[in-house]
Design brief:
By secondary structure, the chain is of the alpha+beta class. The protein contains twelve helices and six strands. It has two domains: 59 residues, 434 Repressor (Amino-terminal Domain); 205 residues, no CATH class. It is 46% helix and 7% strand. The strands form two sheets. Strands 1-5-4-6 form a four-stranded mixed β-sheet, sandwiched between helices. Strands 2-3 form a two-stranded antiparallel sheet. It is elongated and about 75 Å long. The C terminus is likely disordered.
Length: 296
Protein backbone atom coordinates (compact mmCIF):
# COMPACT_ATOMS: atom_id res chain seq x y z
CA UNK A 1 0.00 0.00 0.00
CA UNK A 2 1.32 3.44 -0.94
CA UNK A 3 2.39 5.70 1.89
CA UNK A 4 -0.14 8.31 2.91
CA UNK A 5 0.64 12.03 3.01
CA UNK A 6 -0.29 13.47 6.39
CA UNK A 7 -1.28 16.84 4.92
CA UNK A 8 -2.76 19.77 6.85
CA UNK A 9 -6.43 19.81 5.87
CA UNK A 10 -7.03 23.55 5.84
CA UNK A 11 -3.81 24.15 3.89
CA UNK A 12 -4.82 21.56 1.31
CA UNK A 13 -8.21 23.22 0.81
CA UNK A 14 -6.68 26.73 0.80
CA UNK A 15 -4.20 25.70 -1.90
CA UNK A 16 -7.04 24.63 -4.17
CA UNK A 17 -9.24 27.64 -3.48
CA UNK A 18 -6.36 30.10 -3.93
CA UNK A 19 -5.76 28.52 -7.34
CA UNK A 20 -9.41 29.23 -8.18
CA UNK A 21 -10.00 25.56 -8.96
CA UNK A 22 -13.22 23.68 -8.33
CA UNK A 23 -13.19 20.33 -6.55
CA UNK A 24 -14.07 18.72 -9.88
CA UNK A 25 -11.22 20.40 -11.78
CA UNK A 26 -8.67 19.59 -9.07
CA UNK A 27 -9.79 15.98 -8.76
CA UNK A 28 -9.28 15.48 -12.50
CA UNK A 29 -5.60 16.38 -12.09
CA UNK A 30 -4.86 13.39 -9.83
CA UNK A 31 -7.13 11.73 -11.10
CA UNK A 32 -9.69 10.76 -8.49
CA UNK A 33 -13.37 11.39 -8.03
CA UNK A 34 -14.51 14.76 -6.67
CA UNK A 35 -15.90 12.87 -3.69
CA UNK A 36 -12.47 11.43 -2.89
CA UNK A 37 -10.83 14.87 -3.03
CA UNK A 38 -13.54 16.22 -0.74
CA UNK A 39 -12.69 13.42 1.72
CA UNK A 40 -9.04 14.53 1.73
CA UNK A 41 -10.06 18.12 2.46
CA UNK A 42 -12.36 17.18 5.33
CA UNK A 43 -9.99 14.58 6.80
CA UNK A 44 -12.12 11.49 6.16
CA UNK A 45 -9.16 10.00 4.29
CA UNK A 46 -5.69 11.03 3.16
CA UNK A 47 -4.06 11.18 -0.28
CA UNK A 48 -0.98 9.14 -1.06
CA UNK A 49 2.32 10.98 -1.32
CA UNK A 50 2.13 10.71 -5.12
CA UNK A 51 -1.42 12.08 -5.17
CA UNK A 52 -0.40 14.99 -2.96
CA UNK A 53 2.54 15.70 -5.26
CA UNK A 54 0.18 15.83 -8.23
CA UNK A 55 -2.08 18.29 -6.39
CA UNK A 56 0.91 20.48 -5.51
CA UNK A 57 1.86 20.54 -9.19
CA UNK A 58 -1.72 21.37 -10.22
CA UNK A 59 -1.95 24.19 -7.68
CA UNK A 60 1.58 25.42 -8.49
CA UNK A 61 2.62 25.22 -4.87
CA UNK A 62 5.66 23.60 -3.21
CA UNK A 63 4.85 20.06 -2.05
CA UNK A 64 6.22 20.83 1.42
CA UNK A 65 3.62 23.57 1.83
CA UNK A 66 0.90 20.93 2.43
CA UNK A 67 2.59 19.95 5.70
CA UNK A 68 2.74 23.40 7.27
CA UNK A 69 0.73 23.66 10.51
CA UNK A 70 -1.28 26.62 9.23
CA UNK A 71 -2.15 28.51 6.06
CA UNK A 72 0.99 30.42 5.03
CA UNK A 73 1.16 34.11 4.36
CA UNK A 74 0.67 34.51 0.62
CA UNK A 75 1.31 37.31 -1.85
CA UNK A 76 -1.11 40.17 -1.40
CA UNK A 77 -3.61 40.42 -4.26
CA UNK A 78 -2.84 43.22 -6.69
CA UNK A 79 -5.22 46.17 -6.72
CA UNK A 80 -8.07 45.41 -9.06
CA UNK A 81 -8.63 48.47 -11.27
CA UNK A 82 -10.89 46.59 -13.65
CA UNK A 83 -14.37 47.85 -14.39
CA UNK A 84 -17.19 46.72 -12.12
CA UNK A 85 -18.74 43.45 -13.16
CA UNK A 86 -15.56 42.19 -14.80
CA UNK A 87 -15.17 38.47 -15.28
CA UNK A 88 -13.62 36.85 -12.18
CA UNK A 89 -9.96 35.96 -12.53
CA UNK A 90 -9.54 32.31 -13.45
CA UNK A 91 -6.83 29.80 -12.60
CA UNK A 92 -4.53 30.81 -15.47
CA UNK A 93 -4.73 34.49 -14.48
CA UNK A 94 -4.05 33.71 -10.82
CA UNK A 95 -1.05 31.56 -11.78
CA UNK A 96 0.57 34.17 -14.05
CA UNK A 97 0.10 36.94 -11.48
CA UNK A 98 1.58 34.76 -8.72
CA UNK A 99 4.49 33.72 -10.97
CA UNK A 100 5.38 37.33 -11.78
CA UNK A 101 5.05 38.33 -8.12
CA UNK A 102 7.52 35.58 -7.19
CA UNK A 103 9.99 36.73 -9.85
CA UNK A 104 9.57 40.37 -8.85
CA UNK A 105 10.28 39.69 -5.17
CA UNK A 106 13.33 37.59 -6.05
CA UNK A 107 14.75 40.26 -8.36
CA UNK A 108 13.99 42.99 -5.87
CA UNK A 109 16.00 41.14 -3.21
CA UNK A 110 18.89 40.49 -5.60
CA UNK A 111 19.06 44.11 -6.73
CA UNK A 112 18.81 45.49 -3.19
CA UNK A 113 21.65 43.24 -2.02
CA UNK A 114 23.76 44.00 -5.09
CA UNK A 115 24.43 47.22 -6.95
CA UNK A 116 20.79 47.95 -7.68
CA UNK A 117 19.70 51.55 -7.43
CA UNK A 118 16.27 53.03 -6.95
CA UNK A 119 14.67 53.97 -10.25
CA UNK A 120 13.85 57.69 -10.09
CA UNK A 121 10.84 57.49 -12.42
CA UNK A 122 8.84 55.09 -10.22
CA UNK A 123 6.21 57.24 -8.50
CA UNK A 124 7.61 60.43 -10.01
CA UNK A 125 4.07 61.66 -10.71
CA UNK A 126 0.58 61.30 -9.27
CA UNK A 127 -3.03 61.68 -10.35
CA UNK A 128 -2.72 65.37 -9.55
CA UNK A 129 -0.34 65.86 -12.47
CA UNK A 130 -1.20 66.55 -16.09
CA UNK A 131 -1.28 63.30 -18.14
CA UNK A 132 0.48 65.15 -20.97
CA UNK A 133 3.39 65.97 -18.66
CA UNK A 134 3.61 62.34 -17.54
CA UNK A 135 3.54 61.16 -21.16
CA UNK A 136 6.35 63.53 -22.12
CA UNK A 137 8.46 62.36 -19.19
CA UNK A 138 7.97 58.72 -20.18
CA UNK A 139 9.05 59.46 -23.75
CA UNK A 140 12.06 61.45 -22.58
CA UNK A 141 13.12 58.87 -19.98
CA UNK A 142 12.83 55.96 -22.39
CA UNK A 143 14.27 57.99 -25.30
CA UNK A 144 11.34 57.24 -27.61
CA UNK A 145 10.14 59.42 -30.47
CA UNK A 146 6.78 58.15 -31.80
CA UNK A 147 7.35 60.07 -35.03
CA UNK A 148 10.54 58.15 -35.77
CA UNK A 149 10.48 54.54 -34.60
CA UNK A 150 13.60 52.62 -35.63
CA UNK A 151 11.75 49.27 -35.55
CA UNK A 152 8.32 47.79 -34.85
CA UNK A 153 6.76 50.15 -32.25
CA UNK A 154 5.94 47.52 -29.64
CA UNK A 155 9.42 45.99 -29.90
CA UNK A 156 11.03 49.40 -29.50
CA UNK A 157 8.91 50.22 -26.45
CA UNK A 158 9.75 46.86 -24.85
CA UNK A 159 13.48 47.19 -25.50
CA UNK A 160 13.66 50.80 -24.32
CA UNK A 161 11.61 50.07 -21.17
CA UNK A 162 13.75 47.03 -20.30
CA UNK A 163 16.93 49.06 -20.87
CA UNK A 164 15.73 51.40 -18.11
CA UNK A 165 15.06 48.59 -15.64
CA UNK A 166 11.41 47.73 -16.25
CA UNK A 167 10.86 43.99 -16.59
CA UNK A 168 8.36 43.20 -19.36
CA UNK A 169 6.57 39.87 -19.69
CA UNK A 170 4.21 39.04 -22.53
CA UNK A 171 2.28 35.83 -23.16
CA UNK A 172 -1.24 34.50 -23.68
CA UNK A 173 -0.96 31.10 -22.02
CA UNK A 174 0.54 29.18 -19.12
CA UNK A 175 0.79 26.03 -21.23
CA UNK A 176 -1.10 24.60 -24.21
CA UNK A 177 -4.15 23.69 -22.10
CA UNK A 178 -4.26 26.82 -19.97
CA UNK A 179 -4.74 30.03 -21.93
CA UNK A 180 -5.18 33.52 -20.55
CA UNK A 181 -8.50 35.20 -21.31
CA UNK A 182 -8.23 38.84 -22.40
CA UNK A 183 -11.80 39.31 -21.16
CA UNK A 184 -10.46 38.79 -17.63
CA UNK A 185 -7.55 41.22 -17.88
CA UNK A 186 -5.28 42.78 -20.46
CA UNK A 187 -2.29 43.56 -18.30
CA UNK A 188 -0.97 44.41 -14.88
CA UNK A 189 1.83 46.40 -13.33
CA UNK A 190 3.91 45.92 -10.19
CA UNK A 191 5.37 49.29 -9.28
CA UNK A 192 8.62 48.88 -7.36
CA UNK A 193 11.58 51.24 -7.06
CA UNK A 194 14.07 48.44 -7.76
CA UNK A 195 12.28 45.89 -9.95
CA UNK A 196 9.08 47.17 -11.57
CA UNK A 197 7.21 44.60 -13.65
CA UNK A 198 4.73 44.94 -16.48
CA UNK A 199 2.72 42.05 -17.89
CA UNK A 200 0.87 42.13 -21.21
CA UNK A 201 -1.75 39.58 -22.26
CA UNK A 202 -0.62 38.86 -25.84
CA UNK A 203 -4.00 37.45 -26.88
CA UNK A 204 -4.82 40.91 -28.31
CA UNK A 205 -3.62 42.47 -31.57
CA UNK A 206 -0.23 44.24 -31.54
CA UNK A 207 -1.81 47.70 -31.49
CA UNK A 208 -3.91 46.78 -28.45
CA UNK A 209 -0.88 45.22 -26.78
CA UNK A 210 1.15 48.37 -27.38
CA UNK A 211 -1.52 50.56 -25.81
CA UNK A 212 -1.74 48.17 -22.84
CA UNK A 213 2.05 48.21 -22.49
CA UNK A 214 2.22 52.01 -22.35
CA UNK A 215 -0.84 52.09 -20.07
CA UNK A 216 0.90 49.74 -17.62
CA UNK A 217 4.15 51.71 -17.87
CA UNK A 218 2.07 54.73 -16.84
CA UNK A 219 1.10 52.81 -13.70
CA UNK A 220 4.81 52.61 -12.86
CA UNK A 221 5.23 56.37 -13.24
CA UNK A 222 2.48 57.00 -10.65
CA UNK A 223 3.46 53.98 -8.48
CA UNK A 224 0.08 52.28 -8.71
CA UNK A 225 0.34 48.49 -8.91
CA UNK A 226 -2.76 46.77 -10.23
CA UNK A 227 -4.66 44.76 -12.81
CA UNK A 228 -6.25 46.42 -15.83
CA UNK A 229 -8.88 45.65 -18.41
CA UNK A 230 -10.90 47.79 -20.81
CA UNK A 231 -7.60 49.42 -21.79
CA UNK A 232 -7.63 51.54 -24.94
CA UNK A 233 -8.45 54.93 -26.38
CA UNK A 234 -11.87 53.77 -27.56
CA UNK A 235 -12.95 52.11 -24.30
CA UNK A 236 -16.78 52.21 -24.39
CA UNK A 237 -17.56 52.94 -20.74
CA UNK A 238 -15.06 55.67 -19.95
CA UNK A 239 -17.35 57.13 -17.29
CA UNK A 240 -17.21 53.79 -15.43
CA UNK A 241 -13.42 53.51 -15.44
CA UNK A 242 -11.46 53.72 -12.21
CA UNK A 243 -9.81 57.18 -12.02
CA UNK A 244 -6.37 55.55 -12.19
CA UNK A 245 -7.34 53.65 -15.34
CA UNK A 246 -8.72 56.75 -17.01
CA UNK A 247 -5.56 58.68 -16.10
CA UNK A 248 -3.27 55.95 -17.45
CA UNK A 249 -5.33 55.73 -20.65
CA UNK A 250 -4.81 59.46 -21.15
CA UNK A 251 -1.08 59.16 -20.48
CA UNK A 252 -0.77 56.24 -22.91
CA UNK A 253 -2.70 58.08 -25.63
CA UNK A 254 -0.51 61.15 -25.27
CA UNK A 255 2.68 59.08 -25.23
CA UNK A 256 1.75 57.09 -28.33
CA UNK A 257 0.17 60.02 -30.15
CA UNK A 258 1.63 63.29 -28.84
CA UNK A 259 -0.49 66.31 -29.67
CA UNK A 260 2.27 68.00 -31.66
CA UNK A 261 2.65 64.92 -33.88
CA UNK A 262 -1.10 64.59 -34.35
CA UNK A 263 -1.33 68.28 -35.30
CA UNK A 264 1.40 67.80 -37.91
CA UNK A 265 -0.33 64.75 -39.34
CA UNK A 266 -3.89 66.07 -39.22
CA UNK A 267 -3.66 67.42 -42.74
CA UNK A 268 -3.00 63.94 -44.16
CA UNK A 269 -6.02 62.28 -42.54
CA UNK A 270 -7.96 62.67 -45.77
CA UNK A 271 -8.67 59.05 -46.66
CA UNK A 272 -8.96 55.64 -45.03
CA UNK A 273 -5.70 54.65 -46.70
CA UNK A 274 -3.69 57.47 -45.19
CA UNK A 275 -5.31 56.95 -41.79
CA UNK A 276 -4.30 53.27 -41.93
CA UNK A 277 -0.70 54.06 -42.92
CA UNK A 278 -0.28 56.73 -40.27
CA UNK A 279 -1.85 54.50 -37.60
CA UNK A 280 0.47 51.64 -38.55
CA UNK A 281 3.51 53.92 -38.32
CA UNK A 282 2.43 55.00 -34.83
CA UNK A 283 1.60 51.44 -33.78
CA UNK A 284 -2.03 52.25 -33.00
CA UNK A 285 -5.34 50.99 -34.33
CA UNK A 286 -6.81 52.72 -37.37
CA UNK A 287 -10.32 51.67 -36.30
CA UNK A 288 -10.27 53.59 -33.03
CA UNK A 289 -10.39 57.31 -32.50
CA UNK A 290 -7.32 58.03 -30.39
CA UNK A 291 -7.12 61.70 -31.26
CA UNK A 292 -10.55 62.25 -29.74
CA UNK A 293 -9.25 60.95 -26.42
CA UNK A 294 -6.28 63.31 -26.56
CA UNK A 295 -8.29 66.47 -27.14
CA UNK A 296 -11.17 65.52 -24.80
Amino acid sequence: MADKANVTLKVLKWARESARMTVEAAAAKVPVSPEKLAEWEDGTSLPTIRQAELLAKAYRRPFALFFLPDIPRDFQPLNDFRTKGSQPLGTASIFIIRELQEKQVWLQDVLKEGDGKRLPFVGKFSLKDNPISVARDILQTLDIDPAHYSKDPIQEWIEKAEAKGIFISRTSYIHSRMKLDSDEFQGFAIADEYAPFVFINSEDWDSAQLFTLVHEVSHIWIAQSGISNEVGPDTPARDKLHPIELFCNLVAANALMPQEIMNQKSSVFNSSGTVYRQAKALGVSSTSSPWLLIIS
